[in-house]
Design goal:
Length: 685
């Protein structure tokens, strides 16, 4: 890939149409395009594209590119900067006519100064633009709109955006946007026309280049799968926000308001909610990205250190209280981004993330590049290295902070998922399925086995060898991720139900926790469990089932003579699909009535799921229609106490607890006379 000399002459000017302060320079993009071996056959992604540095460089070199940007003003600027098929002479002629008419209108004295609506003015930094320049700007904007020509309108509006920050307003840009010298007036039309002339000079050269596909997507970069086709990206070059107190929406606030991209506080809130949480001004109560880094010890330690320093210094403002929270939200958001990004990358894709160290939060150092590399590695990326891009002086500490380029490679899904990685993978898969199919207010969300495979691939995860285990895990072993359970009313929760072979649905049902009541009386029962059984039981569930069987606890609990019929019964139930019951008993009572008891056993850390009870009820009714069905759940409690529950189901409601008893198996000589007397009195009662 070579760059001709003609391009060198206007590399910088092409980027001056409009750009964010502190954006990375164009030569960095070219450096990594060359290092990654990118050719015209490839497609490049900038998921935090800002005002388009990466995309402009790619287009100049004939390389396809896609940008994602949530900020509407920045997205607009990128789109216009990639529109090179405009005749510069015609644009300048059209703009000159607008300038003449706007200047004539400004000279008229016809009443009070024009201004913005109150809701819009409230969004602006106080004194960011003086009344007279604002009045002139609004007249110019009205004139541009009245002479709207679809060939030129976007370039003319973008020129006004640049003019606002480069000479019309009172803004000054440093580490954060602020006020410079307050000017009571400004030559608004002349500044705008000069910006038009600069654009036209660039277009004279850019328009001669070969047309190359480039597009901008206005979306949340944390969820690239919502915007892009799976396996469509060959390389990524981007600079995401850093974790600091820089509110990126303030950088473009004035232009966004005047051009109509932001009209009120609700517009601003909607924008902020689509951004990675990098500063305390866009943190909301419903945010949950921090849950994605709960197992990252270093990020948790940094957050704890920030909070400890805050308390030590007696900092109590609302923003300062959020410093620790936003740190976790930032890295959680980037984890979400990197996780979903895997689904759009082709195997072998290389990535460059330009990020910087930060010490904004009470001078606690955050090594952003190293932490992002650790997160990426945990998600299956190969870390190729971390290049030093440049250093900058920290305002507060006067310490040199590193800006770095984190280099990654996505080789494709790993062959196996184990342990915590498996649990995290399962959570991401079901979250992805739910988020794609859920509509606000829905009580049921249907999906099938094929969705599990397709979403695993989209997320860049290995397709689980046992696809059914993903559903089984959340039906019987684990809670659904909070990102799913939050989407319902407080008194309900989501469960997964089978609806047929390989078919399922998320269902929002009444919250029915099944946990032992610690206040219930304890009943001692003679322990008849052979010691060899306890010695060689492989897990808590197996031990619990054996204890119940040998000590006849089902008989005692149900007052029925019972016999174990089958362990781990797997069968298919119509309209529900495959079910599994830990143990099935049949029994007969003193009146001759016959029963079937479906028993589910749980160790101390596992939870009894209402889905299991519901499917046991359905299984018994279908497979044993002539018997009385009684689902039973057993759970180990502390001190080897066993809780037993029986259930009943009325109509189409969820099963409810009918009875609960607590038993403890003890040697016979452990019974006291007082205990035996109390049990005798129970019978009399």
């Amino acid at each position: 890939m070579r760059e001709n000399n003609k391009l060198r002459a206007y590399d910088q000017s092409a980027h001056d149409w409009y750009r964010f302060v502190l954006s990375f320079p164009p030569h960095v993009v070219r450096t990594y395009l060359e290092r990654f071996g990118v050719s015209r056959a490839h497609c490049i992604l900038d998921p935090f594209c800002g005002t388009g540095t990466t995309l402009v460089e790619c287009k100049k070199l004939g390389i396809q590119s896609i940008g994602i940007e949530a900020n509407p003003l920045a997205s607009f600027a990128s789109r216009v900067k990639l529109s090179w098929d405009v005749n510069p002479n015609a644009l300048l002629e059209h703009a000159s006519r607008i300038a003449l008419e706007a200047a004539a209108e400004i000279q008229k004295i016809d009443g009070p100064l024009r201004t913005l609506p109150g809701d819009s003015m409230e969004l602006l930094l106080t004194d960011s633009i003086s009344p007279v320049p604002l009045h002139k700007t609004l007249i110019l904007l009205e004139t541009i709109e009245s002479h709207r020509d679809m060939r030129f309108i976007d370039h003319e509006r973008l020129a006004l955006a640049k003019a606002l920050v480069s000479g019309i307003s009172n803004l000054d840009f440093g580490p954060e946007v602020g006020l410079g010298k307050i000017q009571s007036d400004a030559p608004v039309v002349d500044i705008w026309l000069a910006c038009i002339e600069g654009i036209c000079e660039d277009l004279k050269d850019l328009g001669a280049l070969e047309a190359t596909a480039s597009r901008i997507i206005s979306d949340d970069a944390r969820y690239p799968l919502n915007a892009l086709e799976p396996n469509s990206i060959d390389a990524v070059i981007t600079s995401p926000p850093y974790p600091n107190e820089k509110d990126y929406t303030r950088t473009t606030r004035l232009e966004s308001v005047i051009l109509g991209f932001l009209r009120n506080k609700q517009d601003l809130r909607s924008l902020k909610q689509r951004l990675v949480r990098s500063n305390t001004r866009n943190v909301y109560k419903t945010d949950q990205d921090d849950l994605l880094v709960t197992e990252n010890d270093e990020i948790q330690k940094i957050a704890e250190a920030i909070e400890a320093r805050r308390i030590e210094l007696g900092k109590t403002s609302g923003f300062e209280r959020l410093y620790a929270k936003v740190t976790k939200l930032y890295f959680g958001g980037m984890s979400q981004h990197l996780s979903q990004l895997r689904g759009v990358l082709r195997p072998g894709a290389k990535l460059a993330f330009i990020v910087g160290d930060q010490a904004s939060y009470l001078r606690i150092m955050i090594r952003t590049g190293r932490l992002l590399a650790d997160i990426a590695e945990s998600l299956g990326y190969d870390v190729l290295g971390i290049d030093l891009f440049r250093t900058r002086l920290a305002t507060a500490t006067k310490e040199q902070l590193r800006e770095e380029v984190v280099l990654l490679k996505w080789s494709g899904p790993k062959n196996k998922i184990k342990g915590k990685n498996m649990a995290a993978a399962y959570s991401r898969i079901v979250e992805s399925i739910f988020q794609e199919k859920y509509t606000k207010g829905a009580k049921e969300v249907e999906f099938d086995r094929d969705d599990i495979s397709s979403h695993a691939q989209r997320l860049g995860l290995a397709v689980p060898k046992n696809i059914g285990d993903v559903v089984y895990a959340f039906r019987y072993r684990r809670d659904l991720p909070e990102a799913i359970t939050k989407e319902t009313v407080p008194v309900e929760t989501w469960i997964i139900r089978g609806t047929g072979r390989g078919k399922y649905k998320f269902a929002s049902v009444a919250l029915t926790p099944i946990v032992p009541n610690e206040q219930l009386a304890l009943t001692k029962v003679p322990d008849a469990t052979p010691q060899i059984i306890l010695r060689y039981a492989l897990n808590d569930e197996q031990a619990l089932l054996a204890i119940i069987r040998h000590s006849r606890l089902i008989d005692i609990f149900t007052r029925t003579t019972c016999y174990s019929l089958q362990n781990h019964l797997r069968t298919a139930v119509e309209g529900m699909g495959q079910t599994e019951t830990d143990e099935v008993y049949v029994g007969v009572d003193q009146r001759g009535a016959q029963y079937v008891f479906a028993v589910q056993a749980k160790g101390g850390k596992d939870k009894i799921g209402i889905v299991q009870i519901e499917q046991d009820m359905a299984m018994c009714q279908e497979k044993f229609p002539n018997l009385i069905c009684k689902p039973i759940a057993a759970q180990f409690m502390a001190d080897d106490v066993i809780a037993l529950f029986s259930f009943e189901q009325i109509g189409g409601e969820l099963p409810k607890v009918q009875a609960e008893k607590h038993y403890k198996l003890v040697p016979y000589d452990d019974f006291t006379d007082a205990e035996l007397e109390s049990y005798r009195l129970r019978v009399q009662d």
